[in-house]
User: Fold this.
Amino acid sequence: MRKIDIAFVTCCLLLVSTSIYAQSTKGTSLTDWYRHQVHLLSNQISEQLIGMLTTMQISVDAQRGQMLKVMESQLVGYVLNASNDVNRDIKKYKNDYLQRLDETTESLQEEDLIDFVQDLKKRQMEIDRRTFEILSELLSNHGFDGTTDEVSPENNNNNTEEDN
Assistant:
């Protein structure tokens, strides 16, 4: 039994001494190992994160480029539609204006023509009236009374004397 006790004590002593040595070196090694593992994981995560962010940046840049192209084409389409609408409205206004101008010109010309015709009729009536007055006076001075073709004798004598 003694041998067992000595073997037991020796094992315990050996176990305690190695345990104390492992504890002293284990603390520094474990801390270093832990730091090293944390550093490795941190580097891996950083690299993965940088790779993902780079991929996301490229994707965002591509999407932004596509969106800019789409917006540009929509804006160009809108500007073209707006300018076409404005040009069409300007042409419509111009045509309406020219049509109103033609109508106004025609109405003014017609009014001027109507005024001219009325003025011409008035003048013609005045000329006819004065001609009639002059002819009436001349005929009445020569003895024509307007009802017969014969000349009155008293006016006929005046005419013969004047002729002589």
Observations:
- The longest helix spans residues 2-141.
- DSSP finds two helices and no strands in the chain.
- Residues 2-139 form one domain.
- The chain has one domain: 2-139.
